[in-house]
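Protocol step 4 of 6: structure prediction from sequence.
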Amino acid sequence: MKELPVIFKSEGKNIIGMLHLTNEKKRPVIIICHGFTGSKEGPYYMFSQTSRKLCENGYNVLRFDFRGSADSEGRFEDQTFVSMIKDIKAASNFLKKFKEIDLAKIGLIGHSKGGSVAILFARNNPSVKCLALWSTVADYKLFWKGYEREFKVMFRKGYQNYYGFKIPKKLYLDNLNYNLLKTIKTIKSPILFIHGTKDTDVPLIHSKLLMKEVNGPKKLIKIKDADHIFTEPKDRNKVISETMTWFKRYL
């Protein structure tokens, strides 16, 4: 098993990632999509832990920072669903050079907004054979409900500050351009949903709504009392274990 720091280009921007490679040839690859304001490490290094566990079990794994996030080039305020999807496509093209990887068998892990991106990337992409979506947003109109005060500031100033991140008006409008509930109907690959019952950032109803629209194999695992980022070690271990079981079954 090898861990390689990698850099690849996406529309001229340097994208920084970590590639976990097996010692075998032509094994599936799992790409991890981090969430809003997130990074390739994940909350409490959860993506790092997940990647190593998956690699130990025979899967190649790529985790990277979307442009404008963490170590990758670009401005956060320019990040859109389109740019994030292009970053995953650039990642797929970059992976072609590795003999360990079978790009005909791609798995996706997406957390929060990263789960939404995974849904959009998997649409009409036959190479995506399996998905695991953690705490994923289903409907951005529902997600933004209750933020009326923030919207007033955003539409007056053109942006809203969010823990040091500049959230522009165009990002909010970009979110509303996509019907994820309609999109997920088109995906035939098996989809696992994992969600904490006490997630106040993206409530459990989002996974329930998505789950209802899936036409292929599906499963929803509710982590009792877990929050959005699975703060408790036992919750993170449960998420990793269930994700591993899903990929072993379908990828």
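Step 5 (inspection) to follow. The radius of gyration is 17 Å.
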